[in-house]
Specification:
15% strand, Fumarate Reductase Iron-sulfur Protein, Chain B, domain 2, 9 helices, 2 domains, 238 residues, two-stranded antiparallel sheet, Ubiquitin-like (UB roll), alpha+beta
Amino acid sequence: MDVIFRIKRFDGEKSSWAEYVVPAEKGMTVLEGLYYIKENYDGSLAFRASCRMGICGSCAMKIDGTPKLACETQILSLGKSKITIEPLDNFKVIKDLVADFDSFFRKHEAVKPYLIRKKEDYENPVELIQKPEELYEYYDYSLCIKCGACYSVCPASATREDYLGPAAMAAAYRFNTDSRDEGKDIRMDIVCSDCGVWRCHFNAECSEVCPKNINPAKAVQKLRFQTAIYSIKKLFKW
């Protein structure tokens, strides 16, 4: 079945639309369709891809108006003779479907998404024991692949360039909740800031589009509770 790919192109200065006919077969993904176009029509078409297994998050893009992973989206499953493909919203576009993730990753890095220990003796390391129920508290949020889908539909991210975004705050909650971590107070000063959790509109679109079925909106709300307790303790110096 021939399917028309309507792709939003960008050359660094102006945007335009281009259409290509792709001979779609059963099981063929949108990513494979893009490679077909690049190899048979226009080698200058730019997009990101790596693992082709829904793990790296590189190929996230808008497919018929919804952020999806191109490597996991089968063309025929869309049930259309023409599909529209665009770069993710809320990101600066570098070229065609390639978005600039520098700001996204800086915000993620800002929440210190790693285990922090107050005293770590590397000469005499100690095993940090964790119970299964403690793991389950944060496990879902550790599955984030940093694809940017949640950030692209976030209304707060669209209106505030400095807003941390759902992915970064879900990461903050993930490590705050980890029983092995001791850096909660350090992260709280970041997520309590003007660009943190209280800027969330709770639109919950971030959870709707997550390809890993993580619930960033829930993480943000739980993080709000943590920040409220933290702020009260800080105010009364408990």
